[in-house]
Design a protein that fits this description.
The chain has 13 helices and 15 strands. The protein is α/β, with parallel strands linked by helices. Bound molecules: nicotinamide-adenine-dinucleotide.
Amino acid sequence: MKVNRRMFLLGSAAATQAFSQSERTVNTAMIGVGNRGSYLLQAVLHQPNAKVVALCDIKPDRLDRAATAAARDNPATTADWRRIIDRNDVEAVFIATPPYLHSEMAIAALKAGKNVYCEKPIGITPEQVRALVEAARHSNKVFVPGQQLRSMKHLVEAVGKIHDGIIGDVIMVKAQRHAPADLAHDGSSGDWYFDMSKGGGYLIEQSVHNLDLCNWAINAHPTRAAGFGGILLYKNDPPGRTIFDCGSITYDYPGGVLMSFTQNVFHPASMPNGGQYVYVYGTKGAADLMQGMMYPREKGARPSVLAEKTQEDQYAHQEAFFDAVVNGTKPPVDIKIGAEAALTAILGTEAMVKQKVVTWSDMGVEI
Ligand SMILES: NC(=O)c1ccc[n+]([C@@H]2O[C@H](COP(=O)([O-])OP(=O)(O)OC[C@H]3O[C@@H](n4cnc5c(N)ncnc54)[C@H](O)[C@@H]3O)[C@@H](O)[C@H]2O)c1
């Protein structure tokens, strides 16, 4: 067990109690063991106090593969996720199913008294987010959305310095998520990803991470959005496709702070300025959040390192979840942050789909 700084400050009695708590086993179940669920399963197996007691997936081959990976713990397997929720011996549930299922599954797990790690986005409609926020509010269990960027040390440091005013007051953010291609049409998630009603679309399913970074840096959620998007390259590809392949959205934040976000899946890999970035502009300078660099505005002033990129612990986010379950520590992401990230993505999507300005209050979710 790692004795963390909080325990040290609490003194030796608390440290002893925390030590004995962390010796206990957290019986854990996984719902959805596809691409991300397989990774999360490895993360859970990596935890000193987690035991994988049950696995669920509707695809038998994936369930078998996961059972083999977790053979050490000899988990039960089922294709029916409600049987996971019904098990009295399950204390923590990991949910990594397609996005349209997250809210319903997480609500059922919270109501059954489970601690929940739920992949992003926590919902793809305002109604799903609202219902989950309500359930989390009435639960005393841990709820952690899978927004692992919040557990990355260099981002925590960089955003902390922005909040401390290193670039002055934040006045604008320019961010993008450009990819050289779509997700593989015959890939692991190909049977739901291209269907707007199951994944929510590129902005909700993928860019929710990037939008969360923008909210984090600005320290607020947007009040309204306007934008346009469409299917400009991958028309009916794959057949029946409903998600956009590009879009451009402008968000308005409290105090007139602006955020401009573009996304596409046809930025050639060989062309510069692709990929993902979050540029944060302040009254004294600007920050390239992902690269951890800071650029003062004065003429001739030299750029400096905002936060050194170090080797990150690949399972830090899942460790934080178990730390919260076992030791009561505050997790880096909670229902509020997860809901605000999902709703920011939903807001932008609704603006693009409806082709009008949509306000935060139009979504009708009290957080
Ligand atoms: N945090 C991250 O960086 C990250 C990365 C990748 C994916 N994800 C998220 O993880 C989730 C899953 O994505 P994926 O790429 O693993 O997709 P996937 O299709 O590979 O896996 C989803 C799994 O859920 C199973 N499933 C579907 N319906 C089910 C049901 N009713 N009951 C039980 N199992 C069911 C599927 O059979 C599949 O194996 C998505 O929300 C995605 O956004 C997060």
